[in-house]
Specification:
- The structure holds two protein chains of two kinds.
- By secondary structure, chain A is an alpha/beta fold.
- Helix content of chain A is 36%, strand content 27%.
- In chain A, a hairpin with a 2-residue loop joins strand 1 and strand 2.
- In chain A, helix 4 crosses helix 5 and helix 5 packs parallel to helix 6.
- Chain B is mainly α.
- The longest helix of chain B is centred in the C-terminal third of the chain and has 29 residues.
- Chain B is globular, with a radius of gyration of 20 Å.
- Classes of the chains: A alpha/beta, B mainly alpha.
- Chains A and B meet through strand 5 and helix 3 of A and helix 8, helix 9 and helix 12 of B.
Chain lengths: 233, 277
Amino acid sequence: MSVVEAKNAVFGYQGRAIVRVECLQVHAGQCLGVFGPNGSGKTTLVRGLSGLIPPMAGSVQRSGTLRMGYVQQHRSMDLQWPMTALDAASIAVSSRRPFGWMSSHARRGIVEAMVTLEVSDLSERHFASLSGGQQQRVLLAGALAAQPELLILDEPTEGLDVRSRRILLRALSEAEKNGLATIMISHAIDDLASLSDEVVWFHEGEHEGEPSRVEVMAVDSLVERVLKLRQTA
Amino acid sequence: MKSLSEYWELVELLTTSLATAAAVAVGGSQVGTFVLTRKEGLAALALPQVVAVGVAVALREGWPPIWPAIVAAGAAVLALGWSKQRGANHWVLPSLYVAGLSVSFLVIANAGAHVEEMQQRFTGIDVAVDVQTAMVVVPVVLGAGLLTSLLWRRWVAIAQAPAMAELAGLKPARWDIAFLCLLTTVLLFGTAALGAVMVLAMLFLPAATALPWAKRMPGALWIGGVLGLLFLAAGFVISVEMEWPLSHSVSGTGVAAMGISYIAYQVRQLTLRKSPV
């Protein structure tokens, strides 16, 4: 069952088309990898698929009242804010609650997700004092506790230590088995290969100012294509 | 040094002014905590300048100042909201600050009495709060502070994870405007009653003193409120003993406390780094 389907869709900003999609589906329980160089339109594509920007042409359909979550890179967090790991993990759940107020039940759910990501013992620690890997796991725990049907991950393993990366990928893999659909932007081919079912590849526009075109391929084809590109480079 | 009975007499004489200042200390410090964490300091400085344009027009035309001040504040909030959405606040905010500073005095140029009144409103020197003003300002400023602190998780989400918040159905741009409205309310009512110096001091200094030490937002808000009241009490004593203006004595106390807090925090960080694990 597809949770998001884009057909002949064009996404962009202020009248400027950035990325074009002929047909793309995101299915429940599957991961769609998004791979491409900087400036190719990865973020624009993800914003378009999630509904944060409307398509300039074509259509995007999302199933019913799709609950979506987003896991940003830990580096984008402002560490000047005084907050514990539990506060940071609570952001996703509190965003969905009236006035951001949290119940003890909601808090329990977050702690449970933190146990899965092996960061529950850090819950009272200052978020800024955690390592990058611990911060990223805290953010993922919070996002999973909000029980999304579609989770968007923006380079979640970038700069992570081996242990954090392993725990994070394992948690995502388990969540997928439980029906979670994910879209993962990543430059790490290993991670895409271990988690994704299909990967989006960006072709540059043929002429200047033309939007880049999206090709959806099996993850094995991505590995082959990247190896070929490296050999010819 | 004055005796306790002399202090008691002064407190009785200045009850409404001190009660209003206490409300600004508590309410202002709550809003101020988020002004600093959201990095909206320049907006907090620019808003009173823009409000001053409305007040100057009112003085010139002989109108009551509140409505022109509200209109000017509303226009400023819209301009700030617009500029933030378009990523233009790096030039809009300083421009508003300079424009407000210049235009407010140009409007009343060559009218000595009005110029003096404007200066008093800004500096807070020789300002006394009457009971009617206090009855309006105290609940409004406390209410704005309370609302800001109750919504602390919302401000965290909008600032830290705007994309996640948007996917959860929130409108970050609207919440930004809501915060600017709360900030404007404190600035508008606080400045009208006590002058800009007191309000800006209570917005920035308790929060700046508390934030390095706070582990969580609720803690920062509590400490900020208590520090605001302590700065007011200490500033009051200094102003009485030295015969200095209250607003400036409170600001001076706050600046000193903030400096000590910053140095102490740096020393603590150095000690922690050097201590064996």
